[in-house]
Amino acid sequence: MDIDYLIIGQGLAGSLLAWELINRNCKVMIIDNGLENASKVAAGLINPVTGQRFVKSIDVDHLLPTAKKHYAELASFFKQSFYIEKPLLRLFKNANEIEAAHKRLEQSDYQPYLGSLNRAANSLEDISAPFGFIEQHNTGYLLTNNLLACLKEFFISKQCYQQATIHYQDIQIQPMLKWKHITPKRIIFCEGYHASSNPWFNWLPFQLAKGEILTVHHSSSHLENILNFGNWVIPLDEHLFRIGATFDRDNLNELSSDLGKVSLIKSLQSIYRPLSEGNIVKHQANIRPCTLDKQPFIGHHPTHTKLSIFNGFGAKGSLQLPWYSQKFADALLKEADIPSPINRHYATHFTA
Q1: CATH code of the domain covering residue 330
Q2: Interatomic CA distance for residues 31 and 14, integer angstroms
Q3: Whole-model pTM?
Q4: Which one of 1, 46, 167, 334 is most buried, by most CB atoms within 10 A?
Q5: Do 280 and 311 reside in the same domain of the chain?
């Protein structure tokens, strides 16, 4: 079978890139092992301003409009919503954060993302916020599992999806690129943290991090907004909430742990005790494909130029991937510049 692109991995990166290429009339095949991946575990939170100093995400002024437009188009195609826009309340942890927020409120380019600052400790029912909080706008979350399920059905209907495990030794590079009966013009690896074991791309400076998330049912909670207090709480509906996420660089496995659960519950107790007493209905863990310089890894292998990678989006994939998918497709089809190219690491990390 001759195709244009063989995409390895049907997480959010592989799915959105495949969608983009298929809509540009490319012949694509997606190979996925069918197991739970980091995209399926991730909360899909989109929050343009983060950190103790309230810093805008890099390029958010064009990443966010592109993401909203892209998810709206997918919603129209599949006849269901995927991106839920919801205000976020950032609870201050100390006076330094209040000062940092004040400074950002004076900057015009932060106006679309930051609302009113509230110093009243008792203004939120049942929520402990002794230093107050600030409202954040243009925030929300992606229903990643729903979107990936719809895209998988779409790929199957187009006969461009196979469930299989890729063994690297089965990939033939010379005299022509080939995997089993498929001969693609290019193979693109979108395999999340597994790329750290990929023989062609394991030299890239990944900085993997395990994250754990709880889904909690509570019969009488009144929480309507997303909360951010170092960890976060996302209200999925009137009674169901997601709480996360831990950040562990040492125990790189996909196993949920008692330590992770206790850490999240303790964090929740400190700001919203009623919800911490809810019923835990799901406890998930996976590994984020974070990178050393906090930027994605996109581009072609230095010597095997028909092998490419589209990876390293970490916790901001929901925000970044629509724009990066479009730009990488432009690079593949129109010879445009590659965004966040891996050639920045050739001199320092590629030793072959």
Answers
A1: 3.50.50.60
A2: 9
A3: 0.96
A4: 46
A5: no
